[in-house]
Structure prediction request, 312 residues.
Amino acid sequence: MIYTVTLNTAIDRLIQIYGKLQRKHNNKTKLTTYDIGGKATHVSVALSMLGIDSIATGFIGGKAGRMMAEMMEEKGVQCEFIHQAGSETRESIILIDETNQGSFMITQPGFTILEDSLKRLKTYLDSQLKDEDIVVFAGSPPSGFHLSDYVDLLSIVKSKGAKLVVDSSGEYLREAIHVKPYLIKPNEFEFQEYVNKKLTSINDFKEALMEVKGKCDYWVVSLGKRGSISIDAEGNCIYAAAPKVQEVNETGAGDFFVGGLVAKIYEKASIEEMLRFASAVGTSKAKQCDTSSIDVGDLDRLQSLVKIERID
Ligand code: TA6
Prediction:
């Protein structure tokens, strides 16, 4: 089974406005909708749309939490979240204007996780996980979540022999690496922060990846419109150039990219196939206006447009 763990769930309030978002102006809204917020939640949605079962867990609270879980269930995801009474799942604001230059994302810190809720999640993972499982931790925990608790959760996954996939940032990413996940997926900014270097060219990324290879089986760094770059423990480095498309809303594209990677890990595919497929899935997400869907019928075409290159 594939499990996805979102420690800081969210409802995305998607606000579309006319024209260009401007300061000191009355920016009129065109449409406001609500969607599933990420990040591991989006991995489960991606898998469901690809016909692969997963169980989504993590913490939810209040009406917003229930609404998010219901939206996920409508998309075919089995939800087994820990519901924390008296708390409310946060709302993320995603603003899109008509300039096609990308969205503005405004997020809240999320509710404090109580000792009892944490215990319940630890017990859940400890009792459910088996060595053939894949477990995805994506997104940063809510503020105040202890690093040691994060490491404890990841360590439960490792102790069960399950494959651990991590998409995190900052100090949580740093700590996750000590647990030696199977795959780590930072974005280009998170990776630069981790290596504490300004990286610009694909070659810069390759050289920085060479220095950290072996800390996990695979590093995959997403590079936005440029695509992604990966390295395995032996130092084999691959660059996947993403298809050029007209983006509508890139929010969630990184999460869906991880969904594509996980789908191929599940199928025991090669790293080249993983990158090709994940690029297509992430690109398809960026073409949608909402934050939690892809056009499954377009994936073959998008995959054929991904350029895979070995960099020695
Ligand atoms: O990647 C997009 C997204 O998953 C949004 O749906 C959203 O709510 C947000 O990221 C949450 O990000 P955070 O890093 O605060 O967990």
Observations:
- Residues 271-286 form the longest helix (16 residues).
- The chain has ten helices and 15 strands.
